[in-house]
What does this fold into?
Amino acid sequence: MTAFLFLVSFAGLFSIAPLRKTMILKYKLTYPSGTATAYLMNSFHTPRGAQMAKKQVTTLFKSFCGSFAFAFFRWFFAAADGCGFSSFPTFGLQAYAKRFYFDFSATYVGVGMICPYIVNISMMIGAILSWGVMWPLIEAKKGHWYKADLKASSLHGIQGYRVFCAIAMMLGDGLFQVVYMLIKTGFSLYKQRSDKKQAYNGEKDSEASFDEQRRVETFLKDQMPNKVACLGYVLLAILSIVCVPFIFPQLKWYHILVVYLVAPVLAFCNAYGCGLTDWALASNYGKIAIIGLSAWVGLGHGGIIAGLAGCGLMMNIVSTASDLMQDFKTGYLTLSSPRSMFVSQVIGTAMGCVSSPLVFWIFHKAYSVGDPTGSYPAPYGLMYRGMALLGAEGISSLPDHCLEIAIALFALAILLNVLQQILQLKKCEVRGIRLHRLILFFWRRSDKKQADDFHPALASGLICGESLWGVPAAVLAMAGLNPPICMKFLSAARIT
It folds into this structure.
């Protein structure tokens, strides 16, 4: 895995580097996350900003320590699956059997505080409709729509409905976003060209401000030659074409060549769209690669592995390209060297190539990763494997009536996206509240400024503290040191 990551993770950096001047200076794309990061970094260099930064770091450290300590405390009561605070039947045992419960996860609380209201309410509605309505109705057809003796994890049983219905909505949403982004990108490019012609025909723009001139001068002064970037991409492509088939024999050299020919175009689209809207659609392009390569290779020749490996290849190229352009925007606004930003991205990518397989190995050895009933079900792993299976086998792999339900959900996903765009045009805002957002909601009611200043730090500490505890917990499990207590909840009927 480490060798594969080193082969495919750097090409995206070289594919987009020659377009940095076009994206930042010519098109003047905003890259909202990169811009926000730059303004935050610039504010640290003011007296008030430095004082605020100290308070935010203190808040983050306190929430980090509290989250880590509580995760350590929870560990003592989780001797087996279904034990401990992570399986607390808040709404009763029947609801718990349908996966409705509170798990006391500081990570989810932190994520809920950071995510927008629309994301939280969408996930809540999806959970209620699927686990509360759809799956119980389909499970009632057991023995009619699918065989009764299938394992719970079989994609030809109830798990197939869960996976393929979710895939249908993800593909519908992804297809809409890709088409929408291509239309928006094309319109923006056309508008840029029209504005440029008008500028040539009319008077010249007023002189740029002194700060803007300094930014442009710094951005153009220390940069990597375009020839080096193009040569780097070609060399990495050749290296991948030669070496990747030894790691994944199901992928032939011509499959990889096609990916490397298509990837720069998709990387540009993704980076441009990210600059306009802050949406990174790398996962959607990866899904297209999964289905396309799986169907091309075929089930009998290892289409599932080929599709998943091709997805990793495509996503690495496309996602790192938009990440680098975000960094270029941050560097442009903070007067940082573009070459330094590029080198930093390369170093960070190399660190990820080493640390990611190591962390995966630790969790894989310590926990049953991928088990739908375990602590780490890895739902996206099931989704992506399901997409590869769909591409390799076709619709014949679906359980009875799954195709009809999936088509309806695919259309529903597109319809909801269209409705969302219409509401945004009419300046409507869809709002909703979950438990995680209730904390922020009441905090803002009491002190809005304090909540806006400190809730990202508080949420980040909650996420990092519990997540970091996963590493020592995994090491303890590998050493044979398991939690001493299993705290379970039973119905009164079973006790008597």
